[in-house]
Specification:
Elements lengths: L7 H14 L7 H41 L8
Length: 77
């Protein structure tokens, strides 16, 4: 049984070796710039979508309010 036991140092050395040899993301400037631009584009698209949704909601609420003021039922889509 004693022959099968690993010491903590052996385990930690194996983990360090695995961490050093695993494939890492490319760290080139072009890759980082591309990732940055993709993140910026995604953020911009998200903000624009949220703004569109707010405008649509405001428009629907305004139409509903106007239809209630005039005594009509809102048009269902």
């Amino acid at each position: 049984m004693a022959g099968c036991a690993f010491s903590d140092e052996t385990v930690f050395a194996a983990l360090r070796l695995a961490a050093m040899t695993r494939e890492r993301e490319p760290s080139s400037k072009a890759y980082r710039q591309d990732r940055f631009e993709n993140t910026e584009r995604a953020a911009k698209e998200t903000i624009e979508a949220e703004q569109r949704a707010r405008r649509e909601k405001t428009k629907r609420l305004k139409e509903l309010r106007l239809s209630q003021q005039s005594g009509k039922h809102p048009a269902t889509e």
